[in-house]
Design goal:
- It is a single chain.
- This protein folds into 2 domains: about 55-175, Metal Binding Protein, Guanine Nucleotide Exchange Factor, Chain A (Beta Complex), CATH 2.170.150.20; about 185-280, Peptide methionine sulphoxide reductase MsrA (Peptide Methionine Sulfoxide Reductase, Chain A), CATH 3.30.1060.10.
- The strands form 4 sheets. The protein has a 6-stranded antiparallel sheet with strand order 3-4-8-7-6-5, with no helix packed on it.
- It contains 6 helices and 15 strands.
- Helices cover about 20% and strands about 25% of the residues.
- With about 290 residues, the protein is of the alpha+beta class.
């Protein structure tokens, strides 16, 4: 009798193992996780147009050779050569490979580096970052948050409020122009010593669209550096600032002007001595 019980229990145990194994081998195809043998044939879901599953040959068809080199092979275009570096139109910059919105014109600023620069993406999901050691130094690469195409790099020397500079290749972008009234801009002209140092300070300011350095206030046309250094032309080293008054006012620019130099030292700023380094404000209209 005991032997029969042992046989019966053994048979039930075998049936239980067989039943469990059968259930594991029959997953619900609609929502289960595939077994290892099936992973290679089941594609990842297409989440809101995610382009991760687009074959490389399709990118070659849709992109120019230069765009493909930058976006898909992590290349870099020559500085100051991109069509969007000097673009001042209002709109949205999107990924050149998949059309994902990346940056807006409101966060674009002139960093003087030769590539379009932005201090903030459209959203945290618009771009992703990863470590890049391709040149023997560690940098932070910026890639599209949707298709993972290479866009450029990000550095911690940008303007507030983020302090970041997203340095992006023009050829990696497309631009969607905003329809409506053009952006209203104003111009300010300041002299506060060596124009390179002054320009570096103003480029950090949110709302600055473009900066141009040169000489002004003198009595000869198109003077050279040597001409100005003689002190006989009457020119001052100056910076012309083009700004969006909706983001920064002329009064706020004046506050910055007073803060970044010492107007009480006549014809001198730090080690730079000469009448070309004098402090001056060249107003554009009666309001200024």
């Amino acid at each position: 009798m005991n032997e029969n019980k042992r046989y019966l229990f053994g048979l039930l145990a075998v049936l239980a193992v067989f039943l469990a194994f059968s259930l594991l081998k029959k997953p619900d195809r609609a929502g289960s996780v595939a077994t290892c043998g099936e992973c290679a044939t089941i594609a990842m879901p297409n989440l809101e147009g995610n382009n991760m599953d687009i074959p490389d040959k399709e990118y070659k068809k849709r992109l120019s050779p230069e765009a493909y080199r930058v976006l898909r092979e992590k290349g870099t275009e020559k500085p100051f050569s991109g069509k969007y570096y000097y673009n001042e139109e209002k709109g949205v910059y999107v990924c050149g490979a998949c059309g994902n919105p990346l940056f807006t014109s409101k966060t674009k600023f002139d960093a003087g580096c030769g590539w379009p620069s932005f201090y903030e993406p459209v959203s945290p999901e618009s771009v992703r970052t990863q470590t890049d050691r391709s040149l023997g130094i560690e940098r932070t690469e910026v890639i599209c948050g949707k298709c993972s195409s290479h866009l450029g790099h990000v550095f911690d020397d940008g303007p507030q409020p983020t302090g970041q500079r997203y340095c992006i290749n023009s050829v990696a972008l497309d631009f969607k122009k905003e329809t409506g009234a053009p952006v209203k801009t104003e111009t300010a002209l300041f002299a506060a010593g060596c124009f390179w140092g002054v320009e570096a300070q103003f480029k950090k300011v949110k709302g600055i669209i473009k900066t141009t350095v040169g000489y002004t206030g003198g009595h000869i046309v198109n003077p050279t550096y040597r001409d100005v250094c003689t002190g006989k032309t009457g020119h001052a080293e100056a910076i012309q600032v083009k700004f969006d008054p909706e983001q920064v006012s002329y009064g706020e620019l004046l506050d910055i002007f007073w803060e970044i130099h010492d107007p009480t030292t006549r014809n001198r700023q730090g080690p730079d001595v000469g009448s070309q380094y004098r402090s001056a404000i060249f107003y554009k209209d009666t309001q200024q």
